[in-house]
Design a protein that fits this description.
Layout: H1 5-20, H2 24-60, H3 63-70, H4 72-94, H5 112-118, H6 123-136, H7 142-170, H8 178-194, H9 196-201
């Protein structure tokens, strides 16, 4: 297991800082909190944490390297498919209206499975997973340590991303004016589009 308590504490700090700082997940969760409230955003937050835990396990057990070496073309396809999906999510956020307004298709929050699958095309998630495995996973008892790393990361990640949902929900009162809500959603969509930069132009941040 872990070589020392100091290493575990250092990893928990890394997990907290990397989980709570801005990125595509937290941007979408903030927007979800504003548009749908805490309760309806819970599946989204759970999908982020569980999906990321599975990703850390897979990267730690070598799936990322196998995928990259065996199917490099599909790896490139995944990057650009991820970019297209991120643009779609940005458009959905930008065009979200106030909940409860008359509409033929009422906006819905991102669900558990969609949030979990999104981790595989999220450049920040790749950086976090690779950093956790390469920096904080002792070689002795490696497989058990990968499981511990993934589980601890999920436990730290869930309340961290939950803060963004609650912050978004707290802003709902300030964004009752449809114009301010529209401006907020457009700003969140723009931040998602900006987050495409490392996915498309900084290959090393995406490749395991």
């Amino acid at each position: 297991m872990f070589a020392s308590l100091d290493l575990l504490i250092a990893f928990v700090l890394f997990a907290f800082v990397s989980s709570i700082t801005p990125g595509p997940n937290n941007t979408m969760l903030l927007a979800s909190g504003v548009n749908f409230g805490v309760r309806r955003s819970v599946p989204h937050a759970l999908g982020v944490s569980v999906g990321f835990m599975v990703m850390v396990l897979a990267v730690g057990l070598g799936l990322g390297e196998v995928f990259k070496a065996a199917w490099p073309v599909l790896y490139t396809v995944l990057r650009y498919a991820g970019a297209a999906y991120l643009l779609y999510l940005a458009w959905k956020i930008a065009t979200s209206g106030p909940v409860g307004t008359a509409s033929t298709a009422e906006p819905k929050p991102i669900g558990f499975w969609a949030a979990a699958a999104f981790q595989w095309v999220n450049p920040k998630a790749w950086v976090m997973a690779i950093g956790a495995i390469t920096t904080y996973t002792p070689a002795q008892g490696y497989v058990a340590n990968v499981v511990v790393i993934a589980a601890v990361f999920a436990l730290v990640n869930l309340p961290s991303v939950g803060v963004w949902v609650m912050f978004g929900s707290a802003l709902r009162g300030l964004l009752q004016n449809p114009r301010w809500l529209m401006l907020f959603n457009v700003l969140m969509a723009a931040l998602l589009v900006v987050s495409l930069y490392p996915l498309l132009f900084v290959e090393s941040t995406f490749h395991p």
